[in-house]
Amino acid sequence: MSQKITASTLRIGKRYRAERVDDNYDAIVIGSGIGGLTSAALLSQMGQKVLVLEQHYTAGGFTHAYERNGYEWDVGVHYIGDMGRKSTGRGLFDYISGGKLEWAEMDPVYDRIILGDEQFDFVSGKENFKDSLKQQFPDEADAIDQYVELVLKTGKFMGNISQLKAMPNMMGKLMSLSSKNKLPDYALDTSYNVLKGLTDNEKLIAVLCGQWGDHGCPPKESTFLMHALIAGHYFNGGFYPVGGASKIAETIIPQIQASGGDVFTYADVEEILVHKNTAVGVKMVDGHCIYAPTVISNAGVVNTFSRLLPQAVSDKLGYAQKATALERSMSHVGMYIGLKGTAEELQLPKTNLWIYLDQHHDKNVAALRADPNAPLPLVYVSFPSAKDPDFQRRYPGRSTIEIVSGPCDYEQYRQWADKTWGKRGDDYEALKQDLSDRMLAALYKQMPHLEGKIDYSEVSTPLSTSHFCRYEHGQAYGLAHTKDRFEQDWLKPATKLPGLYLTGQDVVSCGVVGALMSGMIAAMSVVGLRGAGELLKKIKSGVVI
User: Fold this and answer.
1) Per-residue pLDDT tens over the stretch 320-368
2) What fold, for 14-102+243-327+479-541?
3) Residue range 449-466: average pLDDT?
4) What is the H or E stretch that residue 356 is in?
5) Which of 21, 233, 267, 480 could bridge 53 with an S-S bond, Cβ 3.0-4.6 Å?
6) What architecture is domain 330-476?
């Protein structure tokens, strides 16, 4: 059942007005995704006054949440791994949130992979993960053991490589020659090829690749490096922010304000200002210019070099050509569902469902690319109201479900791109209704008791992502996580233009923690080697201003 769309009442950040902006910032951050917020918070803790400019009505980027008709949904924080122990990610979140961001653990079964009529559980804990799979694949015990070890081994390389991205060019190049900092060849091979080297069991390969929607590339297109980063990230289970996704931005912003900084929404940047071959500030769409010695773009590399940086500057540096040549990640459709009743009453689990037609991921994706009316190759279902122990306090007697499906062809939606959001006409609404019916059919097959229980629902398309997040093709993960992307040594925080830095999921990898890490290495790049050492000590101490 769908009702009239009303504006979200959940807003984080302060509305931009030119007269509210100071004139003495140390750094300007374009975009308030987790990469931008992390960079801003860390620089603030180093004593810098940082301005964050967000074009959306609320801060957070893909970590924001919205409320409508008495329900609340997140748009990108479906679950996060490694938040139950002192991992690097947890320590960094604790620091930039001043210890105010809390995490709730999901069910021991954090992901359920469904291939047709069969289901396979990913269970929290490395040994539990292996034991669960061995029960269903008893002849593949050795392959499962080898797989887990290979995932953990591969993931360690990314930590070293990420640190190199924060170093000055020459030093980074020299250190990259070390064997511990060099990716083994298999890491950039496809997930399918690497797993095929461990087992001939196609069903097991399909199950192990059952989280491919977390990075957007099916097994024969994705790098094993990206596969390993995602899989290993969740070996210790999945977690969800207590109070919902909006708590991420809400708890980080005070650390930015601690040194006099600001986070403005409705703050649309038109251009990065360049003077004497140096980034010196930004020009807003209202014509107001704001100056600072450091500009950090969290807008994605394509937007940064093709839209925000003056074309002549971008062309001269060669960035525009490089950025536009890289493949974009997948687009997706989403469905946001509200139900009367608690998660317990409705039997909603804290487990994610990954629903596939069968074990042939790549074949089914190819079929959808050839024909948009083909069966949906991937339907992901999340139950945020079950994951968040604070949800019932905020929305008593209500529950929510989120469904994501993809990949989508943006060209199918382009004809409505210039129409106003919410006013795209009957044909567009009919297309969304068809998508709704197909996603609900997948949900009801797994949870038939929910049929007839929906109080409110709405569907988002790649146009929604394009409108709210400024990704031209509505892509979910910025650049595609293919081999080509990981071979671009220019994808790092420091650019060839003095004063301009990059942060966000294009710098390290996709996902909340990938963008979080990019925020840290961007801040390290800004403050230099000596400052980076001091910053790491501050993070380790956990003491904030």
Assistant:
1) 889 889 888 888 999 999 999 999 999 999 999 999 999 999 999 999 9
2) FAD/NAD(P)-binding domain (3.50.50)
3) 93
4) strand 352-356
5) 267
6) Alpha-Beta Complex (3.90)
Range(s) of the chain covered by CATH 3.50.50.60: 14-102+243-327+479-541
Pairing label, strands 65-68, 71-74? antiparallel
Is the pLDDT at 77 greater than 60, yes or no?
yes
Q: Is the pLDDT of residue 73 over 70?
A: yes
Helices within 50-190 (DSSP H only)? 88-96, 126-136, 141-165, 169-175
Token pair for residue 14?
Answer: 């302060």
Tell me where in the chain the CATH 3.90.660 domain(s) lie: 330-476
Give SS3 for 105.
Answer: strand
For residue 102, give both structure tokens. Answer: 């809390």
Q: Which amino acid is at 97?
A: S
**Amino acid letter, 541:** S
Tell me how far apart the alpha carbons of residues 284 and 78 are, in angstroms, rounded to a whole number.
Answer: 33
Residue indicated by tokens 């301009």: 500
In order of 87, 186, 261, the CA distances from 151 in angstroms are 17, 11, 40
